[in-house]
Write a structure and sequence with these properties.
3 helices; 86 residues; elongated; mainly alpha
Amino acid sequence: MGKDTPSYERSAKERGLYASDGDDPTLSSYLSSLLYVLSVPGFILIAYAGYWGGVWGYDAILPVFGGLLVTALVVAFALMHFLTGR
């Protein structure tokens, strides 16, 4: 069996929040997933809000969304790089 299957010693919540093995998910991994799940709808909303607010035209919605997405990826990877020291 794989190491990621729940065991009888610890519950799934304990495995995620108090991970002691390199294969166990951590709170950081949950937060990272949450960031990416919520960021795409948020970036779409920001891109359309700028259009509705008259900040940019209709043709700029997709480039603004792409720019926000790329910026979020760069910031997330830079943050992970500096926090882990690798």
